[in-house]
Amino acid sequence: MAETTTFTNATQILEPFRGVKKVTIEEYFTSGHRTCQGCESALVMKLMVKAAGPRTIVLGSTGCMYVANTTYYTTPWVVPWMHTQLGSSGSAALGTAAGLKALMRKGKMKAEPINVIAFCGDGGGADMGIGAISATLTHKEYNSLILLYDNESYANTDIQISGMTPFGAHTTFSPPGRAKRIMHTRWKKNMAGMMAAGHPECRYVATVCASYAVEMMNRVRRALTIGGPTFIHSLDPCPKGWDYDPMLSHELGELAIETGLFPLYEVEDGQVRYYGKTKAIVEGRARKPVREYLLKQGRFAHFTEEDLAYFQRKVDAMWQTWEIPAVVPFKRLDATKSALGAT
Amino acid sequence: MAVATKAAPAAAEDKELLISGSEAVAEALTLADLDVVTAYPIRPYDTVMQAIAKKIANGQLVAEYIVAEGEHSQFEIVKHASTVGARVFCGSSGVGWAYAMECLVVTPPLRVPMVCLVGNRALDDPGAFGVEHNDALFVRDLGWMLCWIDSSQEALDTTLIAYRVAEDRRIFLPCAISADGAFLTHSQALTLVPPKEKVDTFLPRYNRGDLLLHPDNPITVAPQANEDWVIEIRRQNDEAMKRASTVIEEAYADFRRVFGRAPDNPWFEEYMTQDAEVVLVGMGTISLPIKVAIREMRAKGKKVGLVRLRWFRPFPTEKLVAALSKAQAIGVIDRDYSMGSPFMSGVVANEIRAAMYNADRRPPLLSFISGLGGREVTLEDVYKATEMCYGAAKAGRSDAKTHWLGVRD
Ligand SMILES: Cc1ncc(C[n+]2csc(CCOP(=O)(O)OP(=O)(O)O)c2C)c(N)n1
Ligand code: SF4
Ligand SMILES: [Mg+2]
Known about the structure:
The structure holds 2 protein chains of 2 kinds.
Chain A (H helix, E strand, L loop, with lengths): L39 H13 L3 E6 L2 H4 L13 E4 L4 H17 L9 E7 H7 L1 H7 L7 E7 L40 H8 L5 E5 L4 H14 L2 E7 L3 H4 L6 H10 L6 E4 L2 E4 L1 H7 L7 H5 L10 H16 L12 H10 L1
Parallel strand pairs in A: 1-2, 1-3, 3-4, 4-6, 5-6
Antiparallel strand pairs in A: 5-7, 7-8
Helix pairs in contact in A: 1-7, 3-5
Chain B lengths: L14 E6 H11 L4 E4 L6 H12 L6 E4 L3 H13 L4 E5 L1 H6 L1 H6 L8 E6 L13 H4 L7 E4 L3 H15 L8 E6 L7 E6 L2 H7 L17 E2 L4 H34 L8 E4 L6 E5 L4 H13 L4 E6 L1 E3 L3 H9 L3 E6 L12 H10 L8 E5 L9 H17 L6 E3 L5
Parallel strand pairs in B: 2-3, 2-4, 4-5, 5-7, 6-7, 11-12, 11-14, 14-15, 15-16
Antiparallel strand pairs in B: 1-8, 6-13, 10-12
Helix pairs in contact in B: 1-2, 1-7, 7-9, 8-9, 10-13
Thiamine diphosphate binds next to helix 2, strand 3 and helix 4 of chain A.
């Protein structure tokens, strides 16, 4: 029985929810978790698995969404759930999908499309686990979704800088001090753009924000339907790490989009499609100034006007000089020159 | 259940093949109908992954063959595949095994019955391809079953036995089979490869049971337990390791019934120990030069024997103590080091010292460290060690020093 072509598992066809009233009522992430009040990442978990439905296996790497979410005897997960190591979301997705596929194609398990979702934090995903995620995104024969919930710090260990922490933010590893106001001078990684640009056979990459819940769930449904390995980056306001009143989580998510700091887009088969408020920005609506977003958060309380201006310039450059605005940071030579000339 | 040993049909005969230790493991994996395997290159274990790749390419084995981007992922991928019910295989050598350490740590408490081949290799630095046992020994305290083999035949047989034991619901622990780099991974010998029917009689399908991660069995695996439960979970692991002693004996007995071979004593091989005054102890292919040396010494009237330890975890404490107590002196030759340990001895020597502590009869025990980095253990080395053991036997005590054999001054 020589196999000449590669075998691809079928996927569940999950049509988009057409409006909030059409969203299914069943919950697969329920009570039992112990996250902070206003934790947006917990909402992401709930929406993610609501979108995926009951025939789903979820793997979660170490971080708040494990430690604060999955206490023995009080698990909130209604679907099967398993912990994976901090840097292992890519491997967890791949191994689970490969195990199911092997058993199904050899007739050792009833064949049916089962969603495999592995989630990771920004520390686990964009720092430690980036190699494994990258590898998984090249294994097109295995269906899985890797969802990176980005609360912009190693939150569970007491809020430390990750490669996804915004410039200048106050964390326990980057406290503003007398000699150094800004301890964290690196710019945030462009995870979704990098995953999309670097993995030509990954059919679907998207960014989401749970402030736009239906849009977010529909991106999850698309990722699971299209098949192969897929990647979603979710920006999650975190009251503890960002230092704001928990009731502002939703609003901060909106501001991240409206300031253009975090673009909402999907890349399907190589085609970039902006959506939501980001689409309006691309079509000409003015971006709100980033200070409106930054100054609502204690982690930027030490910023001077100079810091705010620097931040604004960096965001402006994303929109004005990147070849695909806010997605891919390459620029045409002349555009680079004019941008440099302007400063 | 059918017993396949007698009146087996013609098709059900063993085949005899000239294969290396790594190739013998690949034969066993094919017979075991492996489901998921992950590979990453490092010498010398990677010969097994080359052999499996050929089997899959030629259609002899249907399995997911995943080349990982590092050993950490290599071990994590199969760990997860196992939790959804797949029979999995993995392996590594030296620093590759070290790179996977985090994953090796979590596998036993997750009760994942992974089977691995460790092609024993010296750790960096400096670079060396040759054998040392320190790599596999990293995990000796963590709930891994560990064994050492010394022939292609044993490689094949032990792989089948390892799955049978690891996947037994009473155990559900990973098992690493250690094969000395080059001496066994790459050396060919005539090996009996049994027919699939016999293997099916011996090795049931892996059944993950109530631990299966599947939408029909919506469990939460490895939740945050903290001090509320961790000690109980450790204790359960420990109990599983204890039960492994019984299950391993059952498996060898059943292997003998089905395949018509397998040692009576699974735990260690005894070579000319019956009347031995000095008993040497070692693991792996060091048995080869020691056996030659023993025959030479016996020709000159010296009663020397060898205990080749197969199973290091679980450690066969009582049986080993009973076997070694009879000697006038014991010489343990470690192919590993344990720097700063009691008497600066090797790992095996210190384990045996600990095991002998409560024995009624405790012969003097000498510790030797030899063959590191793949250096040949020569007959001269063995003669020298034996002479020192005779000295200790005569004195009735050992000087509790550790002797390095074959080291340039
Ligand atoms: C290998 C390893 N190193 C360090 C840790 C400690 N640790 C536990 S949770 C965590 C934070 C993870 O951050 P992130 O992935 O962003 O998730 P978050 O906690 O922010 O939700 C760290 C560093 C660990 N569990 N494993
Ligand atoms: S620290 Fe942030 S991510 Fe963690 S539980 Fe609290 S709000 Fe959620
Ligand atoms: Mg984080």
